[in-house]
Design goal:
This protein is mainly alpha-helical and 123 residues long. It contains 6 helices and 2 strands.
Length: 123
């Protein structure tokens, strides 16, 4: 099984190398990790959304999703892992209200309820 995974990673890395994206896939234990050299883009005076779109445009040739989707994944994980919403919002560069309005809608009611009970039970 590991040999098959390693062959698949090697094929994917070869494609990424030829696409000149500066991305490689690494396997460490049971985890897969992307290593990337981000494009040189102007940061000053740009919003998080504008930066996300610029990075997504750069990687759009080989990655089948917008890189901005990773932001949503991170936000949802902060909720699932019980990270304080004010800290998560600050890390993402927006208010707690925006964090809860935009990202909490991605969670099913059952998950929200489970997290609510877990947080109430924690000291």
């Amino acid at each position: 099984m590991n040999e098959k995974i390693d062959r698949t990673i090697a094929i994917a890395n070869n494609r990424l190398k030829h696409a000149k994206l500066g991305i490689t896939i690494q396997r460490i234990g049971n985890g897969l990790f992307l290593r990337a050299t981000l494009p040189r883009i102007r940061i000053e005076g740009r919003t998080h959304e504008q930066l996300g779109r610029a990075v997504s445009k750069f990687f759009a040739r080989e990655i089948p999703f917008e890189c901005y989707a990773l932001r949503y994944c991170w936000a949802v994980r902060t909720i699932l892992f019980g990270l304080d919403p004010s800290l998560a919002a600050r890390q993402m560069g927006h208010s707690v209200e925006v964090h809860q309005r935009v990202y909490h809608r991605w969670l099913a009611e059952k998950i929200q309820e489970r997290n609510h009970h877990a947080l109430k039970a924690s000291p």
